[in-house]
Write a structure and sequence with these properties.
heterodimer; A: 114 residues; seven-stranded mixed beta sheet; globular; B: 112 residues; five-stranded antiparallel beta sheet
Chain lengths: 114, 112
């Protein structure tokens, strides 16, 4: 089992640029979650999908953030335009079921916006 | 909305002592309470969990207790070792929304 795979692991970009983070969940998992981790705010749930459908995006900070899951094996989190306050570690996680299952986290994507 | 409060934010103990981390949650529909350990620069990983129909669960040196009436759950680590040093997160899963909400984390330092 390869686990949850995220890319890139590190991204440094300038303010105003578009950032795309990618995630491949564990095969057979039908729920996918995007979290953002900062020192000040801890682990914040941004959005989660069940069977490729967005269920709750109330944690997405603003319209600059968007997420898609075109199929069961791939999801993207896009920030356009990026701002310095978006600097954080973004984790993708997947689980077998949305309501009772353990979350398996990817290694995270560390984003720095200058 | 859903909220999980975690205390303390930092905890320093001597090797061999016990460590206790406490969490409270606001959503009465919460029915699953996992604990994650995150080492520096690594991903969070599940160490133990408890469901709402159980009051206590133990796995070797770690145990979790749940008081649904008080909306309170705790992590207990006995005979702490330096490798237990990490950030620990509690979380609560809402049975209504399916959202897993994390506490703010506790940085545990075990001094040799």
């Amino acid at each position: 089992d390869a686990g949850v795979i995220q890319s890139p692991r590190h991204e440094v970009t300038e303010m105003g640029q578009e950032v795309t983070l990618r995630c491949k969940p564990i095969s057979g998992h039908n729920s996918l979650f995007w979290y953002r981790q900062t020192m000040m705010r801890g682990l914040e749930l941004l959005i989660y999908f069940n069977n490729n459908v967005p269920i709750d995006d109330s944690g997405m900070p603003e319209d600059r953030f968007s997420a898609k899951m075109p199929n069961a094996s791939f999801s993207t989190l896009k920030i356009q335009p990026s701002e310095p306050r978006d600097s954080a570690v973004y984790f993708c996680a997947s689980s077998r079921q949305p309501f009772t299952g353990e979350l398996f986290f990817g290694e995270g994507s560390r984003l720095t916006v200058l | 909305g859903e909220n999980v409060e975690q205390h303390p934010s930092t905890l320093s103990v001597q090797e061999g002592d016990s460590a206790v981390i406490k969490c409270t949650y606001s959503d009465s529909a919460s029915n699953y309470f996992p604990w994650y350990k995150q080492e520096l620069g690594k991903r969070p990983q599940l160490i133990i969990d408890i469901r709402s129909n159980v009051g206590e669960k133990k796995d070797q040196r770690i145990a979790v207790t749940l008081n649904k009436t008080a909306k309170h759950f705790s992590l207990h680590i006995t005979e702490t070792q330096p490798e237990d040093s990490a950030v620990y997160f509690c979380a609560a899963l809402s049975g209504n929304t399916g959202k897993l909400i994390f506490g703010q984390g506790t940085t545990l330092q075990v001094k040799p």
